[in-house]
Protein: ATPase, AAA family
Amino acid sequence: MKMEYNSTQSVEQNIHDIISKFGLEATSEMINNTKDEWIIPNFLAPQTITMIYASAGAGKSLFTLYLAKFLLQENKFSQIHYLDADNSPRVLKDRNLNQILDSFKDSFHYYFIDKPKNGDILTHLSKSNDLDGALIIIDSIRNFINVDFTKDDKITSFLDKLQKLRNLGATIIFLHHQPKQSEEENNKAYKGSTAFMDSVDEGYYLSLIKEHSVLSASELFFTLEPQKFRFDMAVSNFIINTDNFKFKKDDSLLFANNDIARYTAEYVIKILQKHTDGLPKSKLIKELKDLAFRDDVEVYRKNSLWRFMDKFKNRLWTITRETKHNTIRYKLINS
Structure:
């Protein structure tokens, strides 16, 4: 929905008249008629700004290319414009971009952008007359920014340009990088100012699994973790097949990050299915330890377990604090 402001008032008589020149006044009918639309449930909504970030080599561009193809296959967008200032034609040849372009000649437009910082392409895009319903992908945002990454006011001013495109009807995804991470642990931080996260509708940390016992040699598994959880956004798992271009969302957790996570998820679900009213923290961990000992498998323990449980809060189970007994209760959703 494009925002159309009332800018025709000739006399500024009161507060309402003045503010109405700069914004659209909310009405009960407007809010009631607002649809909870999804492009991909709990992952991508129309007319939003989404940041996807990860460390170098994590597969951000590959994932987003396959995502774009999937969205066109499913008729989610009539036009997708991919602005690439990060990758070379040689890299895209290896990813079979030519086959995707042949399949969607009239709807998928891929551009190798030269010197985007000097051209201020985003300002020019705001003058376009066909932004409504379009998807614009920017790879990566650092190549389009000519200001200090660490300055909130500079980044906010830059990202205002993306918000203007969104208000004119576009859906926007941009890719971003992380600072260098240690080998032991990724802190899931993104590079630069806090304004990056403040100015987007959702920011996803992307992680990649290249090898897993349940994946074929040509399959890659991506997990995208929301950092803001707006609009019921949730952790989303995707599998892509680099041989046949298949792209599917998989939330079964059979493809969790590793075997420890997979067993933990399967056992927790099994336990909570038996206890439809849920279980307090102490009883859940006892039953989980008993099952793991019986089957001689490793599962998450203590703090690792609670972090894992938090990761899928309101997606697979609810987590509530009972003040009466000062305990935390876990309950399977739809049980």
